[in-house]
Specification:
Length: 298
């Protein structure tokens, strides 16, 4: 018998933050409520995505980290009444040919799934973006979650749910070091206060004191030499990369270069043996390791 080869997978992260009170039980309930909506979301073209499974009843711990396991689903919403092509006759299908097509409405082709792990206390969702023929990009995951969390049923209960795709860690430095950086935009939405560093505590403390839901600042260079972000601006931008967005525009006018943390998601790669390892167990261990490394560097 031929031994199964190790399979490579890619992992990305989404930060999910709800309005106060910031309790772990609310995040568990939020995910359960989102699942119960069974909300299909148009991704692009005929592709549809949704939250497919959340094993909330199997809430577990690994190294004292509580987590939920789940899956995103993706499929093509095939509309049989659209134009079809007959590859045998090499011409558009006739009306009678199309009418003979009988696919039950409940069956959808090209089904794919993406496994995810939600670290409850850290409110971070780690999901597999690439696993063999299955793919689910950070932008698709963001679109699904944004759509579900903006439903009236969710907003009534949780008021506001903020979503940020964690960016590649080098993207912020690339923005702040753009040649002739003439515009810097920083947008922040408050996270869960339970896991804030000192910089976050200072910024979100000031926002709280001023009864502010979000924070936005835009700096424009006074001369063609560009901006020179100081230490305070860099701290604010560092907070925004995981809790909002940072955008920089550099270069000469007419030949500018725009970079944004929202366009450069974080990716981590690992591998596992599908014959001997459970993909959820692999994802959980990798997620905890990634989160530990990110926190230790910031």
């Amino acid at each position: 018998m031929r031994k199964a080869k190790d399979r490579n997978i890619s992992i990305s992260i989404i930060n999910i933050a709800v309005s106060p009170p910031h309790e772990a039980s609310r995040y568990v309930q939020l995910m359960q409520d989102a699942l119960e909506l069974k909300n299909p979301v148009n991704l692009k073209g005929d592709w549809v995505g949704m939250i497919g499974v959340i094993a909330a009843e199997e809430e577990r711990t690994e190294n004292s980290v509580r987590f939920l396991c789940g899956k995103f689903y993706k499929y093509i919403d095939l509309i049989s009444t659209k134009k079809w092509f007959n590859i045998k006759e090499f011409k558009p299908a006739q009306k009678n040919e199309i009418e003979s097509i009988q696919i039950p409405d409940e069956l959808k082709p090209h089904f794919q799934e993406s496994f995810f792990v939600f670290l409850i206390e850290h409110h971070r969702l780690f999901f597999i973006t690439k696993n063999g023929q299955n793919s689910f990009s950070p932008f698709q995951a963001n679109k699904v979650l944004s759509s579900v969390f903006s439903r009236p049923e969710i907003l009534t209960k949780y008021e506001n749910v903020s979503i940020t795709v964690e960016p590649a860690r080098e993207s912020l430095d690339n923005i702040l070091t753009l040649p002739q950086l003439h515009t810097l935009k920083i947008e922040i939405t408050p996270p869960n206060p339970d896991d804030l560093g000192e910089d976050e505590k200072e910024i979100f403390g000031r926002m709280h004191d001023q009864n502010a839901r979000s924070y936005s600042v835009e700096l424009s260079a006074a001369t063609k030499n560009g901006l020179i972000p100081d230490e305070k601006t860099r701290k604010i931008a560092k907070v925004a990369q995981s809790n909002g967005m940072v955008t920089g525009i550099g270069g000469e006018y007419g030949n500018t270069n725009t970079l944004s943390t929202s366009q450069h998601p974080y990716y981590a790669k690992t591998s596992f043996n599908p014959e001997h390892e459970n993909i959820f167990n692999v994802l959980v261990k990798k997620a905890i390791d990634i989160w530990s490394n990110i926190n230790s560097k910031e």
